[in-house]
Write a structure and sequence with these properties.
The chain is an alpha+beta fold. Strand 1 and strand 2 form a beta hairpin. It is elongated. It starts with a helix and ends in a 16-residue tail after the last helix. About 10% of the residues are buried.
Length: about 290
């Protein structure tokens, strides 16, 4: 066989080998493509389901409220438009350079703090029992001066101590209490001479009046509560007549006291092992 023939055979062999390689590559591509189609046909419904599960209720750019989120954050359908408008205005404020980033972070942290606080307290408060009538009656009988008699109270309420002291001095000299109340008191009953009607001392104590200033006869001292400076006058004492009113009122008070006690206990537990600091110079006692 001459050299020319050998070259022809070699060229043919190379061409056949190349053709086989191309065919094999095409076959691999087809197989891979087919497998990808099969995989996609399986995965796409799951993705669609996930998209449906996360259906958008409202959106402004990247800020989104999903239907599932509405229940979590207690947004009713009627408030979605409000959310949308607020987000639009907030976005505009950011675009105009009005955002204080640090303030935004602090507000976000405060919102989280309140959310977690309420979650804890609501869980604990569910286990606190409301007092029944028998328990309330036992407490009332144990302190008859506070709960088993009613006093006819009159009140003068002012906003500063010096005014209260001046009024009290004049009342001690014999100035008419009801006329003074009409002229100077800022209490709701000032127009009728400060007449609060018949109440038990316990009902006044629940509003922050010290016990020794609620269980009085005649003119009391000047006292301070969260509402201002008070002067009380008692002109009549009688046996309790409206028992049901006092039972309801005291039951509410007992439940509130239990709630407050539970909260204080939680604070003690929460502070254990933690580094806690409060700058007392920034705290003012306004009670």
């Amino acid at each position: 066989m001459n050299i020319s023939s050998k070259k022809s055979y070699l060229i043919v062999a190379i061409w056949i080998t190349s053709a086989l390689a191309v065919a094999a590559t095409v076959a691999v591509i087809l197989v891979v493509s087919r497998r990808m189609e099969m995989i996609n046909s399986v995965e796409l419904p799951e993705m669609e389901n996930r998209i449906e599960d996360r259906q958008v209720a409202a959106r402004v750019d990247g800020s989104v409220i999903y239907y599932e989120d509405m229940t979590i954050v207690d947004i009713s359908p009627s408030r979605l438009e409000e959310w949308l408008e607020d987000e639009l205005l907030a976005s505009l404020a950011v675009s105009r350079g009005l955002e204080n980033v640090r303030k935004s972070r602090l507000i976000e942290a405060r919102a989280r703090q309140l959310y977690l606080r309420d979650e804890l307290l609501s869980t604990v408060y569910l286990g606190i029992p409301f007092p029944d009538s028998a328990e309330v009656f036992n407490i009332m009988r144990s302190d008859s001066l506070k709960y088993m008699v009613e006093r006819h109270y009159f009140q003068i309420l002012v906003s500063d101590e010096s005014t209260a002291d001046s009024i009290h001095e004049k009342l001690s000299w014999g100035e008419n209490f009801q006329i003074t109340a009409e002229r100077l008191s800022i209490g709701q009953k000032a127009g009728i001479g400060g007449d609060l009607g018949f109440l038990t001392a316990g009902e006044l104590i629940a509003y922050g009046v010290p016990e020794e200033q609620a269980v009085i006869e005649d003119l009391g001292d000047v006292i301070r509560t969260d509402y201002g400076w008070h002067i009380f006058l008692v002109d009549e004492i009688r046996e309790l007549e409206d028992t049901s009113r006092v039972v309801r009122s005291l039951a509410d008070d007992i439940y509130r006291w239990r709630i407050e006690a539970a909260r204080e206990s939680l604070l003690v537990v929460a502070a254990e092992g933690r580094d806690v600091f409060l700058d007392s110079t920034l705290v003012y006692d306004n009670r």
